């Protein structure tokens, strides 16, 4: 990374510390549009506090969220309305999936923390025939297109941060010491490995430093 890139990244981090917003939640409505109108069961891998897991509750008979952090799954239970068909388990994203199958599996900004091919194989094996897998992921920038999309994302990112925080009091400064794991795979590698495991998968670059993957189990 060049000195200029590091300065830009540092400036963006300071900007977001004062105006935080959830880049992943920005994709939640798009995810819902990829899902069937009705489903028997849904699984959200890396569910966090359950924001996405609660959204398809009106379409699915049961939604299950799984996350490795027991504190965050406890928080998800607190935020879920009583009687909602949503449950949560604190478990590893791969070994804790169990043996049952699901009509819908979603995974947002988590798969780059996992062995990529193994994770896709695990999701594939637990997706029922006719089911839908939707992933929003993060890839390492490696091509000119990646860098151009990254540059184009900066003004959109700033505008969204300003809109999301319009009229809100300034939050306390956020420590930038805790960072998520950077992605290992570049987008072309993501596409190659995804299509090897999930024939026919639709993988697309997106703004805001994300890509999307949709696969339907025929």
Describe the model.
The protein has 218 residues and is α/β, with parallel strands linked by helices. It has one domain: Rossmann fold (3-Layer(aba) Sandwich), CATH 3.40.50. Helix content is 36%, strand content 23%. It is built from seven helices and seven strands, in the order ααβαβαββαβααββ. A seven-stranded mixed sheet has the order 3-2-1-4-5-7-6, sandwiched between helices. About 4% of the residues have low confidence.
For the record, what CATH class applies? Answer: Alpha Beta
Number of alpha- plus pi-helical segments: 7
- Describe the strand arrangement of the main beta sheet, using strand numbers: 3-2-1-4-5-7-6
* Assembly form of the protein: single chain
Q: How much strand?
A: 15-25%
What is the β-strand count?
A: 7
In the CATH hierarchy, the third-tier topology is known as Rossmann fold
How would the blueprint of this fold be written?
Layout: H1 3-18, H2 28-34, E1 39-45, H3 51-54, E2 60-67, H4 70-79, E3 86-90, E4 102-108, H5 116-125, E5 127-137, H6 144-164, H7 187-197, E6 202-206, E7 210-216
Parallel strand pairs: 1-2, 1-4, 2-3, 4-5
Antiparallel strand pairs: 5-7, 6-7
Helix pairs in contact: 5-7
């Amino acid at each position: 990374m060049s000195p200029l890139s590091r300065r830009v990244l540092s400036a963006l981090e300071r900007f977001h510390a004062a105006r935080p917003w959830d880049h992943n939640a920005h994709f939640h409505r798009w995810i819902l549009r990829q899902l069937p109108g009705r489903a028997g069961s849904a699984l959200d891998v890396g569910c966090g506090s359950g924001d996405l897991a609660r959204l398809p509750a009106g379409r699915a008979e049961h939604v299950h969220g799984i996350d490795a952090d027991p504190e965050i799954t406890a928080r998800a239970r607190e935020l879920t309305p009583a009687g909602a068909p949503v449950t949560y388990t604190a478990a590893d994203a791969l070994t804790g999936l169990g043996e049952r199958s699901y009509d819908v599996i979603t995974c947002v900004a988590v798969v780059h923390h996992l062995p990529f091919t193994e994770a896709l194989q695990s999701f594939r094996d637990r997706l029922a025939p006719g089911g839908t897998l939707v992933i929003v992921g993060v890839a390492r920038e490696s091509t000119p297109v990646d860098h151009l999309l990254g540059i184009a994302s900066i003004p959109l990112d700033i505008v969204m941060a300003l809109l999301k925080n319009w009229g809100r009091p300034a939050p306390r400064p956020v420590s930038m010491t805790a960072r998520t794991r950077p992605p290992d795979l570049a987008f072309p590698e993501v596409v190659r490995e995804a299509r090897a495991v999930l024939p026919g998968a639709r993988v697309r670059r997106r703004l805001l430093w994300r890509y999307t993957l949709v696969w339907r189990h025929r």
